[in-house]
Write a structure and sequence with these properties.
Strand content: over 45%
Number of strands: 11
Shape: globular
Low-confidence stretches: none
Order of helices and strands: EEEEEEEEEEE
Number of helices: 0
């Protein structure tokens, strides 16, 4: 059974940076593509970005393009989300997910990111 645990969220001022981590167990991060999503109260979960299982291909939402980088560390079996130039509208709970044969089959519990203006 796959378990994903996010960490690294917190409070940061606008313009600042954060790096979120997603530690995987039960399956290696190189097995399937992995991604980041975010959600604010009353809104649907929003796609942030995805990384291929090899780690050499990424795709990001337009809203974060140029400000984020997703990477994986196979040795640590962990995916990262580096966020720079943060804006108040980036405030959300951030979730990591791993794809499988059915789609985004495994999710973490989420970590809160709050960006103050």
């Amino acid at each position: 059974q796959v378990q994903l645990v996010e960490s690294g969220g917190g409070l940061v001022q606008a313009g600042g940076s954060l790096r979120l981590s997603c530690a995987a167990s039960g399956r290696t991060v190189s097995t399937y593509a992995m991604g980041w999503f975010r959600q604010t109260p009353g809104k649907e979960r929003e796609f942030v970005g995805v990384i291929s299982r090899s780690g050499d291909s990424t795709s990001y939402a337009d809203s974060v393009q140029g400000r984020i980088t997703i990477s994986i560390d196979n040795a640590k079996n962990t995916m990262y989300l580096q966020m720079n130039s943060l804006k108040p509208e980036d405030t959300a709970v951030y979730f990591c997910a791993m794809r499988d044969e059915t789609g985004w089959g495994s999710w973490g519990q989420g970590t809160q990111v709050t960006v103050s203006s």
